[in-house]
Design a protein that fits this description.
six-stranded mixed sheet, globular, Thymidylate Synthase, Chain A, two-stranded antiparallel sheet
Length: about 290
């Protein structure tokens, strides 16, 4: 993951001060690309601990087509909680609950969760029902029947639905590629990239998606290529980024998919094994909403 650290340093060296929607302020650059050979290891950051169960469970939630945070909350995955809470604070039902109290209500009250836990038509909706099209299944079918097509595309950016999303897609567009030696690669275009908090999750998530789609299609894995638009470090993450840059990388872990299924939605967290993950300790930072 040295290339990720090089990107951090690049933003520090070449970025400019830029205001942002959250009011936090960023150091920002435009345009960057990372490449990961998935045969050489699974690209899970080692200079800080990344909570892999959250990565895997969020991805499986996307694949399921769900857009309500309750399944994540029930699996102790907290990464989406702030967005529906922000919306809830503006509703007439809001009674001054803290974020933790809101999450407990999502967890214990299904009716409350149905009303206040939905994020709108975000990733899972677009992947599995983009104006009636199951993009993910169509791509899998195309990879199996016409592997060398240049049209293996999934888009999470749907202009019609963007106004109704709690957060418009940051990782917005992906393309799969099958090589002549039967290896599946994936390139992601990410329009907005929170370098410290978001990007390590995004790298691991789409690398894992590559493994799962390759597995369901009977292919090996090739590369994960990560292309960025607005690459930024929030100004309240600078200390954390410098701490991370002072650390030495460990060897990458590997991923083992323990069971193969005919359908992508049948994979479960228990089917995914992360082997030999060694990392430096967690570095905490605030998410900007």
């Amino acid at each position: 993951m040295k290339n990720y650290l090089e990107m951090c340093q690049y933003v520090l060296d070449h970025g400019q001060d830029k205001d942002d929607r959250t009011g936090t302020g960023t150091i920002s650059t435009f345009g960057y690309q990372l490449r990961f050979n998935l045969e050489e290891g699974f690209p899970l950051l080692t200079t800080k601990k990344v909570y892999f169960p959250a990565v895997a469970k969020e991805l499986l939630w996307f694949i399921s087509g769900d857009t309500n945070i309750r399944p994540l909350v029930l699996n102790n995955v907290r990464i989406w909680n702030e967005w529906p809470y922000q919306t809830y604070q503006k509703s007439t039902d809001y009674k001054g609950e803290t974020l933790d109290e809101f999450v407990e209500k999502i967890k214990n009250d299904e009716v409350f969760a149905l009303k206040h836990g939905d994020l709108g038509p975000v990733y899972g909706k677009q992947w599995r029902d983009f104006n009636g099209v199951d993009q993910l299944q169509e791509v899998i079918d195309q990879i199996k029947s016409n592997p060398y097509s240049r049209r293996h595309i999934v888009s999470a950016w749907n202009p019609v639905d963007v106004p109704n999303m709690a957060l418009p897609p940051c990782h917005a567009f992906m393309q799969f590629y099958v090589s002549p030696d039967n290896k599946l690669s994936l390139q992601l275009y990410q329009r907005s990239a929170d370098v410290f908090l978001g990007v390590p999750f995004n790298i691991a998530s789409y690398a894992l998606l590559t493994h799962l789609v390759a597995d369901v299609c009977g292919l090996g894995v090739g590369e994960f290529v990560h292309s960025f638009g607005d690459v930024h470090i929030y100004k309240d993450h600078l200390e954390q980024v410098h701490e991370q840059l002072s650390r030495t990388c460990f060897e990458l872990p590997i991923i083992n998919i323990k069971k193969t299924y005919a359908n992508i939605e049948d994979y479960r967290y228990e089917d995914i094994e992360l082997i030999d993950y060694k990392s430096h300790p967690t570095i905490k930072a605030k998410v900007s909403v």
